[in-house]
Amino acid sequence: MGGGLGLLALTDLLGRAAGLGALGAGSRHTPRVALTFDDGPGPRTPDLLAVLAAHGAHATFFVTEPACRAHPEELRALHAAGHQVEAHGRWHRHALLLTPWQECAQIAWHPRAGQRGPHLYRPPYGGHSPLTRLLAHLTGRKIALWDVESRDWTALPPGELAAQTLACTRPGSVILLHDGPQVTPELLGTLLTGLSERGLKPVTLNDLRPHRIGLREGWARLRGSYGG
């Protein structure tokens, strides 16, 4: 029993916190970053699209199957505006809370399943089970993580969240935001202004070309995740 739980914890640690083998940041030598939004589309999507359009910026949206069914017009608006649309799963649950057949369905679903790839999948919470990477490989999905969190799910004011996010952002960073929190549109506007002042251009993940996370970067992610 203890050994099984230890294996589950180790799998999630290496897959989520270290991110070994997943797509992470892009080149640190090119002044570009990727803004990514999880959990949409939803009622906040039009506000986010308006802010992005005002700054001439493009982003990547990781959408869920229930949200796409509930908000088809917002999903169409994402495509129409030229943003990259990728998968966040059929259920917003950690991989360890899914049965194997549920996780298979979770990863296999994609809003662009009938179109040309690559097809990216971002696990909810970044969570991994022992089957996550195998199922992603079998279904032709690439796991895409991030290296900077906006923490827009907290109660902090947008200016403070933007300042904290910018302090952690470097060329090649993949920034995690959420399509839903009330604070995110204002945070996004401040963040985009700050990126422009630093000479960093926001692009889609496809344009950023993130690389796979290796041992050195994985170790740095682990240390950062646990206060090292």
Q: How does this model look, in words?
A:
This protein is of the alpha/beta class. Helix content is 43%, strand content 14%. The protein is built from ten helices and eight strands. The chain has helices spanning 2-18, 45-54, 65-70, 72-80, 100-108, 132-138, 158-168, 184-197, 205-208, 215-225, and strands at residues 32-38, 60-63, 84-87, 119-121, 141-143, 148-149, 174-178, 201-203. Strands 1, 2, 3, 6, 7 and 8 form a six-stranded parallel beta sheet that branches. The protein is globular, with a radius of gyration of 17 Å.
Summarize the entry for a quick read:
With 228 residues, the chain is of the alpha/beta class.
Overall pLDDT score:
94
Global Rg: 17 Å
Can you tell me the residue ranges where pLDDT is under 50 for at least 5 consecutive residues? none
- Helix content class: 40-55%
Report the biggest beta sheet as strand number plus sense, adding barrel if it closes.
6 strands, parallel
Order of helices and strands: HEHEHHEHEHEEHEHEHH
Number of helices: 10
* Share in β-strands: 5-15%
- SS-derived structural category: alpha/beta
Globally, the shape reads: globular
Measured distance between first and last alpha carbons: 30 Å
In total, how many beta strands?
8
